[in-house]
Design brief:
mainly alpha, 3 strands, 2 domains, 10% strand, Rossmann fold
Length: 138
């Protein structure tokens, strides 16, 4: 088996279904096709294999170097990455604010862009970090 399976329609479709809270069939198909575009480049398979062999991009050991105020935005219904990791990240970043968006999956900036913009606008005007909290759309 090669990395070509990563660009297969069924796998990408399943990833889209997992990524979003509520997704119509037509939208899932459209986003699957869009999400596969980069896989069509002739160099994609070689680049993917090289990336995997290199160990990928792991930032875990760099987290302690982040001193800036940080906003963590997480979809409450993310089925790709467990929300426990959001809490862990919040605990590991000393100046972090964690905001979870209800009824939102793995890609809040795509699924709930208005809520994300509001959170960012609030964050940049705040004097000090907030505690973790849920955001309920208005």
């Amino acid at each position: 088996m090669t990395v070509a399976v990563l660009k297969s329609f069924p796998l990408r479709f399943y990833a889209n279904v997992l990524s979003f809270k509520d997704l119509s069939l037509n939208t899932a198909i459209d986003w699957t096709n869009i999400g596969r575009l980069h896989c069509q480049f002739p160099w994609w398979e070689d680049a993917t294999v090289d990336f995997m062999r290199s160990g990928g991009f792991n930032v875990s050991n760099l987290i302690e170097q982040v001193n800036q105020r940080t906003l963590i935005i997480w979809g409450q219904d993310d089925r790709i990455i467990d929300s426990k990791l959001a809490v862990r990240l919040h605990c590991e970043l000393p100046n972090a604010t964690l905001r979870q968006i209800p009824d939102c999956g793995h890609l809040p900036h795509v699924e709930k862009p208005v809520d994300v913009v509001k959170l960012i606008a609030e964050f940049i005007t705040e004097e000090s970090p907030r505690q973790a909290e849920f955001i309920y759309p208005s």
